[in-house]
Structure of C->U-editing enzyme APOBEC-1:
Amino acid sequence: MTSEKGPSTGDATLRRRIEPWEFEVFFDPGELRKETCMFYEIKWGTSHKIWRNSSKNTTNHVEVNFIEKFTAERHFCPSISCSITWFLSWSPCWECSKAIREFLSQHPNMTLVIYTARLFQHMDQQNRQGLRDLINSGVTVQIMTVSEYCYCWRNFVNYPPKEETHWPKYQPLLMMLYALELHCIILSLPPCLKISRRCQKQLTFFSLTLQNCHYQTIPPHILLSTGLIR
Ligand SMILES: [Zn+2]
């Protein structure tokens, strides 16, 4: 049932939610906002209870902040499984990827799923390798799609009354381009997504530059689904 009010009245999660304008600018795949925002969910064992919170980067990156907070606050039985889901506005840099792998290796009963709106400095070889290492160590990394945006809006944003379904309608094409680029990273292909900024960084352009190796390795239906090639 759609609620008539926003999440405000009597909602215990309110203080953990961010404001709609923040969500709009932080998670827009077309905006290259510097700071990173993270929403996270933690689930223990077979419990259906989900612990949710949001966080932004400080002098440390959000991922490192999460790990430090989690390690300092939690006293848990290592035999109980723990599922963690992150929704990140930027994907982890290589240093965070390394820290995440170390953290997970100390907690064998823990699983981590990462949804990200954008790929952080995706041309950087170390960042690409960092994401591959994460995935190879069992972490699920995916680009946020419409359903994750909608989910985050409902669960992490202090949306105005009656606007439960009014999450920002970002361009699906950008989500698709980032997903394609993540595909290239996983397959160790060169970058195909080019992002350029012009006019004092006011304008951001996204374009596809496909080489032979891309055509040979990426399934045609994935390339065609971007609508940018025929
Ligand atoms: Zn980082």
User: Anything to note?
Assistant: The CA atoms of residues 63 and 96 lie 6 Å apart.
